[in-house]
Amino acid sequence: MSRLPLLCLSVASAALLVACASGGGTRDASPDMFSHARSSEHRGSDDLLTAGLGLEGLRAMTPPAFVDPEAPTAAELRRRALWSNWRGIADLAPGGGYGELYGSVAPVPGREFHAYATVPGASQPHRVMVQLPDAFDPAKPCIVVTASSGSRGIYGSIAVAGAWGLPKGCAVAYTDKGAGTDYFDLDAQQGIRSDGVTGALGEAADLAFAPDAPVGASGVAFKHAHSQDNPEADWGRHVKQAAQFALHVLGEAYPQRRFDFANTRVIAVGISNGGGAVLRAAEDGDDWLDAVVAAEPNVSVRGARPLYDFTTQAALLMPCALPHLGVPAMPYAAARCAALKDAGLIAGDDAAAQRRSAYEVLRANGWSDEALRAGAISVAFDLWRAVATTYASAYGRYGVDEHPCGYRWSAQDKALAARAATTAERSAWWADASGIPPGAGVGLLDTKADASPDAAFAGLACLRALWDGQGADADRVRKGIEEIRAGLPRDGLPVVVLHGIDDGLVPMAFTSAPYVAAAQAAGRDVRYWQVRHAQHFDAFLGLPVYAAQYLPMLPYLYAALDRVWAHLDGGVPLPADELIPTTPRGTGKPLAPANLALPR
């Protein structure tokens, strides 16, 4: 179904590429910005939003099966990736309210367009995708542009932007912002092709990620950690390139009309890292965005604690501190407290005193009790270490086998020793992985681990020293962190920021609160919704204990988008700053409108 402009994007002729890039609204576009374009149709038993799975299929406890697990088709991988990313972001459990009180998974027929885009100076491309619903109205063109949350693949924001924008008839543009699930098997020398299927280095011309690795390297490399590009520094550019790709797609689909940023409504939306990415895009003074909505954003302004700082501190101290709040202790908690005491990081002559000391250190450094309690699940899943190892590598621009604390990634045997990945494991990475191991059959190898009760301590102490220590590696990581500091949004750009007060992964005290304060002090049009009894992971609300205590964030995100749309459409005033007084639903009760207390 390719027509000339999309074909142009996939050929090597410089003249044709220049012709493609000259379309409306592509200011600052490099002639070789896009490559390896492809497109597909999704109608009938397939659709853009859920690949035909619907709410019942998304709720299934097992993923959509592959006919041949060692050679899944592109269509099978796409369906499974949608299943995985919906379940990783939204609370779809019965009684959770999705599809009843908020949100929709009704089928949306249309077309899907994919390509690689490259930021000037980057060594690796990032993915961009546009979903174009059949209901798109070229007379009233709108684009919702988004970036994946966390380090997820290209479908990582389907429950955020797709679920809101596609039913409205908007084209939805996505980017994996230089991270994603394009893992590379160093043993088999195979990576992920543009359609998600695996391919061999040297044989497949369209691998999404092929690392610069030493001869004989083994294990698994992934783009966020091993691209050597520090992708977070370019998040705003990734988002803009996704929007530019959408203009290309619209020009192909409706050749009788010219689309550019001046005549097309563009709203940027994201959560978590995706929220941070759209706020970085908001800095662009080129006047291409009409509004921005960011929920629980990982955004770092100067003077505030960056992610790497509070993550490495949490990884070290939280297992010791949480029992002071009555949270059940991890098996290694006593050993962790003792190691912290020996390192001079906490005080106390007995376990209770050490726990209290660790807690007091965290509180003195800005952690609230609400964030600490919600952060317990990140301790249980070892998420702090997974994040810290990946970001240390990214910020320092380290390559394969260069991690300053000796961490590596690989498939593992039952004893957690490295082994080669199987064909079936490798074939499912693109659909199943979250972008940061452990997960999808890839584990984290800690070369500093020993036989002590707290085997992870030495590696975590090394990671922490890259923030507060001395030496070339610490300087290198801190330099990368300075590259990701956010600036102010463009003057006059409407921005709505939302955050759960109980967020324990990206606490608002370190991220959205200082960002909003700086922006409002500078006179920028930024509104702030703070949501009580909301933490970072809607998907965890499928756990009964979490569902009883916490509310989902997606209803507030959709509501904020509705308010922004009404403002752009008819001049309805933007929402005011608000502290939203929610009510937890309690054990075994379905979510009700009164629990959410959505702003009117």
> How many DSSP H or I helices?
21
pLDDT below 50 for ≥5 consecutive residues: which ranges?
Answer: 1-31
Describe the main β-sheet briefly.
10 strands, mixed
Provide the helix percentage: 25-40%
Structural class by helix and strand composition: alpha/beta
Distance between the termini: 44 Å
What is the 3D shape?
globular
What distinguishing features does this structure have?
14% strand, 21 helices, 600 residues, alpha/beta, ten-stranded mixed beta sheet, 35% helix, three-stranded antiparallel beta sheet
Give a written overview of the molecule.
The protein is globular. The protein has 600 residues and is an alpha/beta fold. Residues 1-31 have low confidence and may be disordered. The chain contains 21 helices and 17 strands. The relative contact order is 0.12. It has a 10-stranded mixed β-sheet, with helices on both faces.
What secondary-structure arrangement, pairings included, does this model have?
Layout: H1 4-9, H2 14-21, E1 34-42, H3 54-59, H4 74-89, E2 110-117, E3 126-133, E4 142-147, H5 158-165, E5 171-175, E6 184-185, E7 190-192, E8 198-200, E9 220-221, H6 223-226, H7 235-253, E10 265-271, H8 273-281, E11 291-295, H9 307-321, H10 333-342, H11 351-364, H12 369-374, H13 376-380, H14 383-395, E12 407-412, E13 418-419, H15 423-432, E14 443-446, H16 457-468, H17 472-482, E15 495-500, H18 512-521, E16 526-531, H19 544-549, H20 554-570, E17 578-580, H21 593-596
Parallel strand pairs: 4-5, 4-10, 10-11, 11-15, 15-16, 16-17
Antiparallel strand pairs: 1-2, 2-3, 3-5, 6-9, 7-8, 12-13, 12-14
